[in-house]
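User: I'm curious whether this sequence folds into something compact or stays loose and floppy. Could you predict its structure so I can see for myself?
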Amino acid sequence: MTNMDWDAEAASFDEEPDHGLRDPEVRRAWAGRLRDWLPARAGGVLDLGCGTGSLSLLASEQGHRVTGVDLSAAMVTLAREKLVGRDAVFLVGDAAAPPVGEQRFDAVLVRHVLWALPDPGRALRHWCGLLRPGGRLALIEGVWGSAAPVGIPAERLTGLLAPVAGPVRLERLSGDPSLWGREVTDERYAVIAQVRTSGQECGEVAAAGE
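Assistant: Here's the prediction. I'll summarize afterward.
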């Protein structure tokens, strides 16, 4: 999956129920989760691996200023079209090291990206360094497939967060078919982590670990 041509996949990407959020029930389910995961007060949200911008749109509708980053220029083009006229910016770049300069955010939102990165621990340290003090990470991940499963187990992800995050909340998502448009049996979950250090201090942790 990490070797997929995401530019080629862009045109059909939204056909998956949890990608395009075209079904009203699926859309409502994700909107409800995001409302709980993201800060209650409107702020800056960095959506990494944003794809066609479906979650970015939900965050924008909830009043947040969204910056989306995706490696696929075709995905970014579709995201820009989806959020035209909204307080949102989309950039082509690497989710592990997003091209946002000195900008800081109230939340970093990442869905189905961390598992595919070569060094997820390093990415987490970098992401928490992009947060304002008291900011949070909203990470949606899983383990997919039975014959040759791919992904990142929840226990591994929470372990990687331990050095940089304070309270960590784990939500199991496999049992909620409204999120996926169907019943699923594999491991799907979200981890919501409050970063316990300031962005600068997280950056220092990242530098020390690199």
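Summary: Strands lie at 44-48, 65-70, 88-92, 105-111, 131-144, 150-151, 165-172, 187-195. Confidence is low (pLDDT under 50) at residues 203-210.
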